[in-house]
Design goal:
With about 300 residues, the protein is of the alpha/beta class. The protein has 2 domains: about 30-115, Rossmann fold; about 145-275, NAD(P)-binding Rossmann-like Domain (Rossmann fold, 3-Layer(aba) Sandwich), CATH 3.40.50. It has helices at about 10-30, 45-60, 75-90, 110-115, 125-135, 145-155, 175-185, 200-205, 255-260, 275-295; strands spanning about 5, 35-40, 65-70, 95-100, 165-170, 190-195, 210, 230-235, 235-240, 250, 265. Helix 2 links the parallel strand 2 and strand 3 (about 65-70). About 45% of the residues are buried. Bound molecules: NADP nicotinamide-adenine-dinucleotide phosphate. NADP nicotinamide-adenine-dinucleotide phosphate binds near residues 196, 214, 237, 274 and 275.
Amino acid sequence: MNDAQIIDGKAIAADLTDKLAVRTKVFVAKTGNAPCLAVVLVGDDPASAVYVRNKGKTAEKVGFKSIQKILPADTPEDKLIKIINDFNNDDGINGILVQLPLPDHIDEGKIIDLIAPEKDVDGFHPINVGRLGAGDFVNALIPCTPAGSVILAKSALGDNLSGMNAVIIGRSNIVGKPVAQLLLKENCTVTIAHSRTKDLPDVVRSADIVVAAVGRPEMIKGDWIKSGATVIDVGINRVDAPEKGDGKTKLVGDVNFGEASQVAGAITPVPGGVGPMTIALLMENTFTAACRQHGLSIA
Ligand SMILES: NC(=O)c1ccc[n+]([C@@H]2O[C@H](COP(=O)([O-])OP(=O)(O)OC[C@H]3O[C@@H](n4cnc5c(N)ncnc54)[C@H](OP(=O)(O)O)[C@@H]3O)[C@@H](O)[C@H]2O)c1
């Protein structure tokens, strides 16, 4: 029994954005323009509204221009398509993000396909998915949450992850699969587990690195974790918290933090782990996109 190192995603993200603010000043001095991130929100989902606000605030903090297009839930698909096309054609906009999920009447896949791949700072366009799959890290834009997860693993384990057993629980296109690609690039031996995996606790017990991206509160128990393993908890689940008062809620991850932190070598908390990294990596992607569009090296 030990006490795991708590990986402070908030501090690591703040360090990244502080450094990015300095690099942005150099970019502005070279080009005369700040990188510009355009975020589109359709509808009034309160969680999405908070995410979009935070993205705008962080963009401004690092010295970017921030455009936020907030549209009503009944916005016709055609109107959204026109906005994306305008953003694609606007040389002053370097990164475009459409906050997901979109209302049911809008075809999400169609909208993602429409974003110019070089401005697709979420890394969800099929061209960027393909580049990541093919190992083309020079041209790809990498999804933010997976990239942030790997940085957090390295913050605990050092830069060399070669030969480590990584088990990823979850195979979504936005988290599980891209994390797997990134850890493969780091020469990990990668297992992707999902809802049909047999003997999941045993599979997880083989892992030096566990990445949990399931969306089920505290599903991964302490006795699934190998002693000393590094645990990256991507899950964000809102659950009732009667201990905080009537009707109160709290956020928990996919890992039972209390149990796992007794066994793991290092673990991310929820909140304060992967979450803040997602926004920091979105800023990195916007900067990368802006540098590429200006033919500058990404220093
Ligand atoms: N920190 C961040 O910024 C951030 C960003 C994105 C997502 N998240 C959070 O990460 C979590 C995962 O998100 P997602 O979009 O990847 O979710 P998702 O699309 O719902 O995928 C969940 C995955 O978990 C697997 N799964 C479900 N139940 C399982 C079980 N009992 N045993 C094993 N695997 C199981 C599913 O398997 P099948 O494929 O077989 O159905 C699926 O592959 C959510 O809590 C989400 O809120 C956080």
